[in-house]
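Late entry, evening session. Most of the bench is empty. Finally got around to the prediction I had been postponing all week. Sequence below, unchanged from the version circulated by S.P.
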Amino acid sequence: MPVNKNAFIRYKYLDKLLSDHHHYYDIHDLTEKVNDDLLSDGFKDVTQRCIEKDLVDLQDAPFSVPIDHFKWNGKSCIAYNDPSFSIFKMEMSDEERNLLHEVLNTIGQFNGLDNFEWLDKLKMGLELKERRQIISFSNNPYLQNSNLLGTLFDKISNKVVIRLSYHTFTDATIRSIDFHPYLLKQYNDRWFLLGAADGDRKILTFALDRIDTVEPLPEKKYADCPDNLSERFEDIVGVTLYDDRPVEHIVFWVSDASKNYVTTKPIHESQIQYQAEKERQLRSQYPVLENGAFFSIDCIENYELIRELCSFGKDLLVLSPAHIQDVIFQRFSESVEKILLLRK
């Protein structure tokens, strides 16, 4: 069967859709998505009849693709009966094999998690030999719901809408939300899921240990993230962002005991250490603060920032703004009051 250029381009798009076992497409979906790809790449769209003929042709020689027809929620869906099948499979080069070996070793911390079994299978399939670990990432083996990492990784990778059931630290009531997952982020040995509620563009954050169940919704259309999520974290410490709070210019002093630690591990990427004339001004303004060093950061106040500033105890003093001083003072005052009560 001779194949013209335009048909071959459509076969490429259809091959991707038919091997997608995370979404279920009927002939109308396939026609719509192939036309989206055609128009995006500068080609003319085609009719549903053309796509129907393409599917028939793909099942004939030389392709002989194994296509299944099945019902899902009232839809007559079409897919490869083997999701790993592709008419465009290519052999991996030695360079690609070596690079993949290093990547697999780097993310090996996820071995044993649900939906990450493919790591071991991939290593076996590539005949990769075990190697001594040379990079070790922070990992909390006792983190609740860490088994969800594999499931959520899978749904984000394949753009699947999910139904989350969750509860909060302060309320055990289980709530449900249809959710478009975008990003898994680790902070302070905990994992967080970022995404948007169905029909909403506002980014929400869920701690994995607050999630009760995850149910895939393959029939729902996935909405890609409209924003660059990496920019979301530029103005905060941690993962909690309040859209209605301004960026604060926070000036603080750190003792000699902790200044090298703060210098080499900044609290925020905006951190600077004051020197020369600015340092002389601050030392004149705060004569009781002997030695040490003066720093500033520009970020939005949130729970993680306050906790980080408090973690240094007496070795870090916030000089401005006053309302952040008040928050820290209140936190330490409550701790002192509780200790005094315990000693009575």
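Two things to note before I forget:
Residues 13 and 34 are 6 Å apart (CA to CA).
The radius of gyration is 27 Å.
Will write this up properly tomorrow.
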